[in-house]
Amino acid sequence: MAYTATALDLSSFAYLALQRAGGGKPRIISTYPSQWVAHYQKNNYQTLDPVIGEALRTPEPFRWGIDFNSKFTSMAQHRLFEEAAKFGIRFGFTVPIHDGHGPIAALTFSVDQSRPQFERFIESHGRVLQLMAMYFHAHTRRKLASVYNIDGTCLSPREFECLEWAARGKSAWEIGCILGISRNTVAFYLEGAKKKLGVRTIVQAVARLAAVKRKQQN
Question: Domain boundary at 104, 125, 146, which?
Fold first, then answer.
């Protein structure tokens, strides 16, 4: 995506996926300056950003820039845009992603100044950028599916897998036979899962997993 954005003379891009839990940090993949991304996340700007607010309201792509101030509802939002401008993020084209497979996401292509070629490209190829954003989102979702989350705690694929088999009543030896790894390796992964979840027993870890699954089903 970075290569394509550069080839199309789009200064940078940012992909932001909101978490299911209201207070969770968004997942960001971006070529924006790292200082800005860190500042954005530290201040939970996704709750304030009028671009994200617009992406939540509409599934249609939209442009934004200086004239986007009609969407501002507070001085804090004005300051957010002013801070972003210092990092060269002044104008953009945002593609909201409402695919029904999880939290809403958005992919933004941005430039540091309003350029005629940028405007012309958006006008003639906006749907192409929308398609690119959708493919990028689908690819990212698949790639990051290896990160398993239990109430905000991320387990490795093996830790999650071993815990799921333990939840089905399988012993470490049985899980090892199923996964083709040793009993000691299974014990290692289960121990890692317990530590990350802050519990002392496998039973407690399994209970946490079951509670999350019930919540997702509801």
Answer: 146
Angle at 18 between CA 16 and CA 19, to 5 degrees: 135
Alpha-carbon torsion (173, 178, 180, 181), positive or negative:
negative
pLDDT at site 24: 65
CATH of the domain at 102: 3.30.450.80
pTM value?
0.66
pLDDT of residue 151: 73
Domain that holds residue 60: 2-146
We report the CATH number of the domain holding residue 175 as 1.10.10.10
CA–centroid distance for 176 within its chain: 33
Q: Token digits for 187?
A: 């014990």
Residue with tokens 């493919």: 135
d(CA 132, CA 128): 6
Total domains in the chain come to 2
On the question of pLDDT at 130 being above 80, the answer is: yes
